Amino acid sequence: MPAQNAQVLFPVNVEGAFDYEVPHGLELVPGDFVFAPIGQQFKLGVVWGTGTAEPGRTLKSIAEKKHCQPLPEVMLKFVDWTAKYNCASPGMTLRMVLSSYKALDPSPIVTHFSPSGQEGGRITPARQLVLDKGGPFPARASEIAQRAGVSAGVVRGFSDAGGLIAESLPVDQPFGIPNPNLEGLTLSQGQSEAAEQLVASVAKPGFTVSLLDGVTGSGKTEVYFEAAAEALRQGGQVLILVPEIALTQAGMKRFKARFGVEPAPWHSGLGEAERRRVWREVITGRAKLVVGARSALYLPYPNLKLIVVDEEHDTSYKQEEGVIYNARDMAVVRSMLAKQSVVLASATPSLESLVNAREGRYQHVVLPERPGSITLPEIDLIDLKDTPPAKGDFISAPLIEAAEAVLSRGEQAMFYLNRRGYAPLIICRACGEKLKSPDTDSWLVEHRVTGRAVCHHTGFSMRMPKECPACHAEDSLTSVGPGVERVAEEAARHFPDAIIEVLSSDTSGNPNAIRERMARMEQGEIDILVVSKDVGWHVPREDDDGRDP
Ligand SMILES: [Zn+2]
Fold first, then answer.
1. Residue 442 CA to ligand 1 centre (angstroms)
2. Residues 328, 200: one domain?
3. pTM value surpassing 0.90
4. What was the pLDDT predicted at 274?
5. Is 354 found in the same domain as 281?
6. Low-confidence ranges of the chain (pLDDT < 50)
7. What b/e string do you get for 39-77 counting C-beta neighbours within 10 Å, with b at 16 or more?
């Protein structure tokens, strides 16, 4: 600035930034992290701009500047834009950005030891064990001690005597540098033409939006990899947003095959140490390629050149709790503010994006189908009037036969049903009463896994009652209709040897559980996965870790 006053925004639920006096000699720029008094305590906030000086008004003073990289200026605009557009408080939006306070400090340092090749004093039996069994080196004292079956004191003593070399290494290691010039898969003519259009828009300075529109199997990923390679060649950072459920090992390996290294991953299931590492590597600009779920958009990139939103139509880009936003739309805004490129990719583009493309606001890159590159699935409709399931069952004979054929070949099956829980309706056989959520007309859904009756609209939930609440008849309540739990139960009857699991927001409520199941499905450890439709979007809020700055 330097100014006498500065505005500071805190990551708390407040309307906006507060004015503070800047102490003499303290130089601040927007984005700097500072400690300042708010209420009864000192809190970490971000310098948001120059304060307004009103004569006669005494301001509290900023206490201290934190010595770390300032938040990139585009992030300040992006926070303001996100907050205003989505009617959220700027403070809570900033909190979403500050997803790891520990990342503001340098990486913790640990001492690693390795053999020096020198004598190192007397070689006791314990020291010999360190040399023989303590490796691989370099390693921490505790790791060496555990492998060698000695105390950590032995390792340190041996180092003091010169037998081991100690070196200080940061815990948080940088990510590998992606190589944009590795040879990817050979592109078809249609892919090459589409890739050229995207590369040209990335190469052009300024804001561009492209809709990459291609049916399943047309090879969209290879095409946007070329756009990413161009942005990397320019020295920029690249963010690839994918639906939470697509963040699997198999997905990461495709990036490694094209760019030589795995990208920096970002999703809600990362542990604190990994979050700290990614956040710090992103703000320093060292992490060049980030692949993440929607909240990766709010990492503090200083030099972002390209955002790709894969499966842009996917509903998991909508965050529906806390700060409510659609990451696809905010990715376009972020790109506009930073004057960079964004690619929206989909086999089934959203109506909004299609309209924008047709009206010329977005570049429309249509990828032709690759002939013979993929066999699209055969789709049959089964009329349950012709082949009704057995009494009380829901899976019809043609479906059982088809699943049997698949399983006998050692392959896997998925059953989709748009109803979670066990049964969508609980009714009394004695009086006909239907169990409803209090003060509403919505039916309670039986969840047998948890033993509860749950309203999917109001969130009301109670233990499954033993008797009818209306006529008090005992054991008269019966479940009507299928939910995924019931289908899984029935499938287990038809396929007693199959490993059957349910994937729904009830059984796999957190993203880690979803990823874990998807990984097991990929590895062939599950034969039949019964999936409810709500898995993609019902991903809990990612930003709030409950910690206070
Ligand atoms: Zn009753």
1. 18
2. yes
3. no
4. 94
5. yes
6. 1-2, 536-549
7. eeeebbbbbbbbbeeeeeeebeebeebeeebbbbebbbb
